[in-house]
Amino acid sequence: MTGTAVAVRAGGGRAGVWRNWGRTEAVRPRRVERPSGPEAVQRAVAAAASQGLPVKAVGAGHSFTGIAAAPGVLLDLDALSGVLAVDVERGRVTLGAGTRLHRLPALLEPYGLALENMGDIDRQTIAGATSTGTHGTGGGFGGLATQLTALTLVTADGSLLRIDETENAELLPAARLGLGALGIIVDVTVQCVPAYLLQAVERPEPLQDALDGYLERSAREDHFEFYWFPHTETALTKTNTRLPVTAPRAPLTRWGRWIDDELLANGVYRGACALGTVAPGVIPPFSRLAQRMTGNRDFTDLSPRVYVTNRGVRFREQEYALPRAAVPAALVEVKALIERRGWRISFPVEVRSAAADGNWLSTAYGRETGYIAVHRYYREDHREYFAAVEEIMLDHDGRPHWGKLHTRDADWFREAYPRFGDFLAVRDRLDPERRFANAYLRQVLGE
User: Fold this and answer.
1) Where is each FAD-binding PCMH-type domain found (predicted)?
2) Between the CA of residue 362 and those of 213, 370, 397, what are the distances in Å?
3) CA spacing 20 to 30 A to 220: which of 45, 173, 186, 276?
4) Which tens digits make up the pLDDT trace of 214-252?
5) What pTM does this model have?
6) Phi, psi at residue 164, to the nearest 5°?
């Protein structure tokens, strides 16, 4: 995904319409403010409270749910960006909450540091990505929120609350992945690692081989994932191996990257998706062609240049986190579902993994996790497909990604997350009047 949310205008008074990247949400805020620092955020929250208005920070608009929708006061935190402090000895970097992930390689390079793991999209803000549970892949690595060692919140009463390993430490498991429900994050401290290379091996393989090897490869390889194009029997596997930054590099040529990641993955694919909306019969043969033309390359480069790919074709997404051992069987059911219903699905199904972690609302809380994500082109009606896939995921004890489409509510989450009640208690303490609430948070957390 490369776009950002449609910008809203003005710094006070009536604002334009805000839309998210996937075009699933739109809202006209009562007012937009662009605070220049933490003190300005405090003033904005206090002003909203005095007027009885809800207030929310908006990142890059890459959530498909309404988690960032701000019908009252929308806070644009772009000015709260960049490196604020560095502890080189411990590899910890404090960043403004509005820092975009794609800026991090240049910001961290002078210190010889990198993120421990990343997803394949880097347009999000650091606070938005951690607050919604953004993750990459790798059976031994947690989501982005697990890399936070500290953060600073503006709470509902306008005060600054520091949360780290020594100050308010009991709040870290809630605040690292807080859905924007506990306050406005103004800075985060990230535990980085020394910069490293990734050796990428991308291969088409029989789907059954990828399914049979998923558990073992997810545990053995540093980073393993695969994509399955519906209407084919082929998986495109991606295996990334971590290497010292001093190892030899063999990056993709600029021309080769453009051919694979721009011309084929975005340009040709965009056209095929658009054509498929009016002539669905083209989708199966195109999927078979796509799996033959892509996913067969080796290269070694700095980690961000391997993790991240350009996603220029707009889509909607649903992703569920399952107990890792359940993933192969669940995907087989999704495949059978598509065949049984006769749907024409142009987007591949993505399969990844993550380590168990202790963040209370993490989709990987307390269990080794695998992910299955389904997508539809944004001009297609996704609802029937997503609803049917969701039923399969729920049958396998799945938990939905907070930023991707689902139908679950607070009563369901109370049963799915052992520490859900503890999170609600923190919310009651920090935002008793629900200053940071919106329709989505009322759905998933209750009133």
Assistant:
1) 24-195
2) 26, 13, 14
3) 173
4) 999 999 999 999 999 999 999 999 999 999 999 999 998
5) 0.92
6) -150, -165
